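Bit of a strange request maybe. I'm writing a small parser for structure token strings and I need a real example to test against, not something I typed by hand. Could someone generate the tokens for this chain?
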Amino acid sequence: MRYLALDVGDKTIGLAASDPTGCLARPVGTLKRTDADSDFAALRCTADDLEAETIVVGYPVRIDGQAGEASRRMDRFARRLRGRLDRPVLGVDERYSSLEAAEWLAGRTSRKQRFDEHALAAAMILRRFLEEGDAVVMARW
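Reply from user aminoacidic:
Good idea to test on real output. This should exercise your parser:
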């Protein structure tokens, strides 16, 4: 099964995809956010192009694991995403994914070694899901 993972921010959405077997995660790019309709249209095209069957979104929870305002915003976004893409959407615990991405990128200077931090965070969210499965799924839409 193929997955598309999203690290959703206010200005950008980091994108990552699995391989066809659903075993490996790789960053694929970043979508600059404009308006909801354009964002969802671009995400649908990306999911179609990558033949993604399921969407995995980083689900923001507080350090103690409890939902907060950011979780509620993601709930609204994910429900709309599910309706627009007509695919299952899974919310995966995203704690520390951006920090992991920043640490991984630190000190990398060659163009070949650099990735966009948001796309890399999406890949780390997807990797966590591929490795741990339902144990890290916080929500389903």
